[in-house]
Structure formats: structure tokens, C-alpha cells
């Protein structure tokens, strides 16, 4: 498979384009009623890769197959099917996932073991192969000429209940990194979260690539929660084809982490029914694990999330959330401090005018809560969103 460059279809001049050597396709395969629902992004040359996946006990066939292919660290292409998770579909689901990979590999002329598959959407429904396979047949007939999609096209084709596509770009040396992601619900990762793919023309070893990805995921996607639920389909992959030459691994890791944080904030801000981004930082902790655990207890609290949504200055709910960590016996109430933005609310009880200022602060699009535990020097920041009636509506009507 050879191709000099990728063309961005229908995009404005400011839209992101792929790094050198990558090209993409999107099309409608009948998974949803209207719009593109199948995407493929591929390198026109051999590449190295790293990937992390959900730890859910009900991981779907796409995850099981992709985990096996990713073990070779030579992934060259990613295909995504939107609107159908293909989870809890038995042997039929396994066969269907394998057939999709086989078809995509055939279109690209690459080994099946170099293709990763992502599948996202409703659980428990077989893939509509009666429409998907004819779609791939038509795509195969067009060959590389069909690969004219840009990153925004791919990000849109991946969407389920997302309200907007999510992309991010960074540069390091002479190389570029381009990321696409989807996911706004079932977001409490236990490795990464949702579907996110990063493509780069930097040249790195598989070991450096893996270390960079795992470090970035730990501090970004793994610090994200919308609703405390872990998806059966979570996948994050990084593919590097080396077209731009070697880069410093440390600088690359920094750029990747920054890109992943960008995508994390986009995901949190677009949480199902979300109206506000919620950022919780816990410092003065015994270790980072304690800081992250306490921060997650705050960002995941329905009472904290609804207070943020309603701009209700009920700061005591943060103390409640901290106090749920009953195993952390070194946390002493008298040593804890809590702030919303620049407003201190504990241990000194706020005055009436302070509560008015707090309510005004909580009406903003982004709300920051800072907690100091007084048990050490470690810190962690986690990301989430408020909880609105819109979340209930989206998920109450998801399949109907």
C-alpha cells in the first residue's frame, strides 16, 4: 500500500490533517440510520505501536482480538464501528469482528495482525453484517481513492452520544501527533477510557512508545470519570510510522501527555448531559494513589456533581466525599483544607457573602475544587463533569 499524503475531505483550512504517511476513510455501513459510522486510519508504510485496553470482565470481541494483534507492537491500521459495541454476542460476535479485520486488511493489503478494531455503542446486539460486508466490498473496489477523510471526519464517524468530534494535535521536533477520540458516557476507566487513537510520524522504538503511552494514560484518561461506569470496549492506541525521523523520547512523551490531556478535557466537557467541566485536585497526600483515590471520590459523588450543576454552594458534600475513604485512617479532619477556585470553605466556615461568591463561581463553565489532605506531599488531578437531568434522559432512552 503506497500513498504520498492524505487529503482532508471537505475541511476548512484550519482543520487538522494527518501526519506524513497516514490516510483515512469514513463511510456509512448501516450501523446507524444516517451519517458515516465506519472509519479506517492507516499508515502507508510499516509502523510500530502501543495500546492499552479495558480490564472489564465483559470485554468485547473487538478488544479481545485487538489485544492479541497489539501484542506484536506492529499495528498499522485502526478501524472503528460506531453505534454497536458487539459485546455479549457470543461466537457470532467473535466471527464478525474477525471478518471485519480480514476485510480491512484486504482493502489495505496488510496482514490481519496489523489491524486494530474498535467497536462502540449498544451492548448485546450482533453487528449488521448484511450491510457492513457489502459496504466493505464497495470500498475495496475503490481502493486508496476512497481514503480522503481527515481527522475531523474520523472523529465524527466514531461518535455515538457525543455532541461534537474530538481531535487534538501537537508537534515535537519535525514530527506531528494527531489524536481522535470519542466517549461521553460509561466513563470511569480502568486502563484508559472510551476510544482514542493517536497517530504520529515520529520515529521511536516500541519500548519508548509503550512507556510514553502508559505514562500519558495514567495521568489523563485514567483520571477521567463521567459516571463511574467502566466500558466493555475501552481502547487507546498509538501508532508511529517514523516518516518524519527520530525525535527525543522524553520530548515526545511530554507532547503525547499534553495531547491526551487535551482530549481528556474535551471528553469531560462533553459528558452526557454535561453543562460544566469539573476538575478536582488533591494535594498534600501520602502518595499519588491516595490523592487520586480521594479526588475520584469527590468527582464521582452524585451529590457533589448535582451541587455543581445547580451552582448550590453546598461545600459540605466535598467533605462527605472525602470521608467515604474510610481505609485512609491517616486523614485527619483538622488537617484537611478545601477550596473552590480561590475561595476557602474549610476548615473556616464561610460567611454569607462568601457563599454568594461561591455560588457565582459555581455558575462558571469550569469549576475547580482543591483539597489538601495533610498526609504528605503527593498530588493528583482528576476530571469530570456535573450531573444533570440530561444525563438521565440520554441513558433512559438510549436504545429506544
CATH superfamily of the largest domain: L-amino peptidase D-ALA esterase/amidase
Q: With helices defined by DSSP (H or I, 4 residues minimum), what is the helix count?
A: 11
Detail the poorly predicted runs.
2-13
Question: Major sheet, described briefly?
Answer: 5 strands, mixed
- Number of domains in the coordinates? 2
Name of the CATH first level of the largest domain: Alpha Beta
DSSP, total strands: 14
- One letter per element, helices H and strands E, the order comes to EEEHEHEHHEEEHEHEHHHEEHEEH
Radius of gyration: 22 Å
Task: Give the overall silhouette.
Answer: globular
Strand-helix topology:
Blueprint: E1 22-27, E2 38-43, E3 48-53, H1 61-70, E4 77-84, H2 90-108, E5 115-122, H3 129-142, H4 151-158, E6 166-172, E7 175-182, E8 195-203, H5 206-219, E9 235-246, H6 249-269, E10 277-285, H7 288-299, H8 302-309, H9 316-323, E11 337-340, E12 343-346, H10 352-362, E13 366-372, E14 378-385, H11 389-396
Parallel strand pairs: 4-5, 8-9, 10-13
Antiparallel strand pairs: 1-2, 2-4, 3-9, 6-7, 7-8, 10-14, 11-12, 11-13
Helix pairs in contact: 2-3, 5-6, 7-9
